[in-house]
Input
Amino acid sequence: MTTPKDDQKSTSSSFTPPYPQLFLRQSDPLPPPINGTLRLVFLSDTHGRHEKIPLPLPEGDILFHLGDASNRGNISEMRSFVQWLKRNSFHKERVVIDGNHDRDRIMLEGPSKRDFMAEYKGVARVLRNEVVEVAGGKMSVVGLTWDACQSQNFTEAKDSIQTWSESAVGEGKRKVDLVLSHFPPNVEGGGRGWQYGSELLSHFVKDVNPSLHCFGHIHYARGVRAFNSDIMMVNCASTWNESVVVDYCPHRKRALMIHCPVPEESIKAHLRCSKFPKEWYVAEDERDSYTMEV
Output
């Protein structure tokens, strides 16, 4: 785990939960990183309001932004966000994808006149329907563009995954750890906001079978669901100016902790949802016992 500033120190936890530990309350402090994990920090749908995000950002190994850094195609907001990222992100790596507002045209169809994502040059790695390895090869990430999700054409990403998988020498079949998209999947039984996503994107994710799929776009649906027994899904929309933090174990190929603060009414929606495993949720009376095992 990296330390952004010399005067900022963090303690690592040796506690390894039997299943993902999920912190949902806005009052839940961010737990120390679990030993042997990569700490991933996610932002999405900041829409030009990045100056309102509390600083310092959570420490971590990789920072991701999942699209809509600007609002309604405002290139000045995109440039402002990139400069803000340079000043405030001390993570070893930064990875970004585009959203429907990161373009001249925010209509559902039609190409952008300018490449807003070129503003990230030298600051963050832009993924365009490709698979890459991060953290020194410990983790593989697929990043989808808004156009691919909107057209529901994932051929380019599939080809990249196949080429990457076939390039392995003596490793057996490679597994994708994380899929990134701005557009959400369709999760039947996921509750309000989770049924408006793309069914073809859901099929793509199911075929790729990552351990984790992270996205945004539908702000009020921020939260966590289990797509199936293998795939965890997280809507990382930064509606309340809060990042999402995940401790991901590259050896076990799964997330061990997710810190995703949401309002109280959203917690109730989580607990009513059939796609939300109740055992993941760290209740308030359990929180102290979790943080004591450090």
User: Anything to note?
Assistant: DSSP finds six helices and 13 strands in the chain.
